[in-house]
Design goal:
CATH architecture of the largest domain: 3-Layer(aba) Sandwich
Largest sheet: 6 strands, mixed
Shape: elongated
Structural class: alpha/beta
Order of helices and strands: EHEEEHHEHEHHEHEEHEEHE
CATH class of the largest domain: Alpha Beta
């Protein structure tokens, strides 16, 4: 297996540049912050950026946990990649990852200063330090299940082909980890209930929303709710619209991952 490593200090834009470098090197597989990526899919592992402390994040990124390390080794054994890109903050870190996953020797070493300008590195550093934002080189929908309750934004990277032609190259996810110096935040169930009431009551055919129950999981929330519908309106399309609108509103306003919206029609009301 050909092993290429990308080395750069934290906050210098390594993950931002990862896919572009992988494309140039004709590499499909990337190891970054505890996860194994192929193309724009997460094959396994869990991101160090979801850990609650910096120490736990370092352990996750270095694959020091037996179960985490063995799961990635098992996937690699099944996938049999010809080449892989490993990202780390130092020569020692990438060497430790390569050894932990038994990837063999390092064939090529690339430093972030070789593929990013000083201005780009400066901007990346500023975003990390002032806004606490981190980049993961996969689309938001792929990593979202690992970041319930975190700030999530898609970041689309574009490449100009000519004066009038622009091609979308790839999509990254911007997250704010729990261990960010900006601190933690909590969204109460009451806020979520108010958002559900506000959103649902704007839908034509809904008479009343009640008995909202919210169950919290590590990967997101499940919402259960009872509704009364105005008689004469098509029930199924209204319920599907409620599920869609509630999911969109909660995810947009809170960045919580909505696993499911279960709606029970309690009755029909004739006006």
């Amino acid at each position: 297996m050909r092993v290429v490593v990308l080395v750069g200090q934290s906050g210098t834009g390594k993950s931002y540049q990862a896919i572009s470098l992988a494309n140039r090197e004709r590499i499909q597989y990337i190891i970054d912050d505890g996860i194994l990526i192929k193309g724009n899919k997460v094959l396994g592992g869990s991101s160090a950026k979801q850990e609650k402390t910096k120490m736990a994040a370092v352990r996750r990124a270095l694959f020091l946990d037996d179960e985490h390390r063995n799961s990635i080794k098992s996937i690699l054994k099944e996938e049999k990649p010809n080449s892989i890109l490993v990202i780390g903050t130092s020569n020692k870190m990438v060497q430790m990852i390569v050894e932990a996953l038994e990837l063999g020797g390092i064939n090529k070493k690339v430093y972030i200063s070789e593929i990013s300008s000083q201005e780009e590195i400066k901007i990346a550093n500023k975003v990390r330090k002032k806004e606490g934002k981190h980049v993961i080189p996969v689309p938001t929908f792929e990593i979202k299940k690992q970041f319930s309750g975190y700030f999530l934004n898609p970041l689309r990277i574009f490449k100009r082909l000519s004066k009038d032609e622009i091609q979308e190259v790839d999509e990254h996810s911007v997250v704010r980890p729990t261990f960010s110096y900006l601190g933690k935040y909590t969204i109460s169930d009451r806020v979520i209930r108010e958002l559900i009431h506000y959103t649902s009551n704007k839908i034509i055919g809904i008479y009343k929303i009640e008995n909202i129950h919210i169950t919290n999981f590590n990967v997101g929330i499940i919402i259960e709710m009872d509704v009364h519908i105005v008689y004469g309106n098509p029930i199924r399309p209204i319920i599907e619209l409620v599920q869609q609108r509630v999911t969109e509103e909660i995810e947009e306003m809170t960045s919580l991952n909505v696993i499911a919206v279960n709606v029970l029609v309690r009755g029909l009301v004739e006006l």
